[in-house]
Amino acid sequence: MAEQRFYFEACCDKEKTNGRKELMSHRFPKNFLWGASSSAFQIEGGWEEDGKGMTVADHNSFRRSAKQADSKVASDFYHHWREDIALMRELGMQIYRFSLSWARIIPDGDGEINRAGIDFYRNVIDCLMEHGIEPFVTLYHFDLPYALVEKYNGWEDRRCVYAFERYAKLCFAEFGEKVKYWQVINEQNLMIRVDERMNIEETDAWKADKMRAQMDYHMFLANALATRACHEMVEDGKIGPAISSTCTYPLTNKPQDVWAARMNDCMKTNYCLDMYYDGKYPGYYMRYLRERNIVPEMLAGDEEILKAGKMDYIAVNYYRTLCASYLPSDEEHPVGMRVFRGNEVDFDQYGYCRDEKNEHLGASEYGAQIDPMGLRIVLNEYYSRYRLPLLITENGLGAADELTEAGEVHDSYRIDYIKKHLEACALAIEDGVALMGYSAWSFMDLLSSHQGFRKRYGFVYVNRDDHDLKDMRRIKKDSFYWYQNVIRTNGDEL
Length: 494
Fold this sequence. Notes:
494 residues; alpha/beta
């Protein structure tokens, strides 16, 4: 593990560029971190065992219990973790990126500490390290303790910021001796767009966006406070955010469409990275907040907090690219007004951008356009902009995998998807990008928020359906053996 951490330092040190070349005798650097990812609410189950509290993710999943699987059992990692970690070792994983459930550690978010939850995660971390796997921990992955919604309306209230700071410090104190890689918040920039994930039930669009802006700002404060605490409490600790990356192509070469594409990236991702990096909103985003009259409440001293929470790296979650045209505003549709034509993630904004279909790209069976080149573009853009090491923490293909009568899963489509995206990673590295590693989504099949277990991402098949738990058996897919060889050869054999 010390050798793995060396590569982070090599990436960070601009004076070690010659040394980096020595590391790159092959397409992927020596000590490149190979792994896979998951999140607590999507795999753990045991949703109320041993004192765990309910989360927003639990609450939302229960609303769909009649239609699909919910978080009560999920992949049942809570009872299968030893077996699952043994499979991780067999796969050859060097890092495992997973999240802690805030409500398993502090059931009501800001009250009594649940030692059983701490013990569970301590056992998981110890087992990972015994198997030679570096634990890579996310503090918050969509699962805010529901009690904080009931008490404060979650992130709208500043008290949620300090509750998160307390939770983060507790995690650093309990696990920081062994965990050196940390993520604060997973996909804040995507989470904030989705009312369900933020528990926004306001029907007035302006009021909802005003609430959204305040919640977003408070999460930035929480991120900064946690980042500062990690640097103070965890020796050699590295911490950063995970963003839902956005790469948008213009529909045409009209200047307005080119601008629209750039603004789509800025309004959905870049403003967030700029805030993490500089501790302040970029000018175009402040203009948007002012034009809509939704500037969040900011207190004296916040600027100092935000500037002190500078990230060590950027974690990239990449699945697809977008396409946009210019959407002019008018008297009925003011600048910045959002329109959710299809979903809450790919919204239109008057005066900025309109989401369009890219006719040049194919798509998965669930509609996500497949674009390995977009990953190369994103990696180059983020590295040239921030000059920080990058790590891919999510990239994968969701599909309706089928178990054959022989008990096998032939997922050549997933192999093809990941292979092409790894080739894009290799090209980005040749471009000069300091890419630390690749952690696929996901290690095993897990609960998809809107498709349950019909939509599978894992290298390991979990033998259950949405409403039939069957035997929960773990079955290695064809992609498991392929990725095993990729790791064994350090990417030389894709």
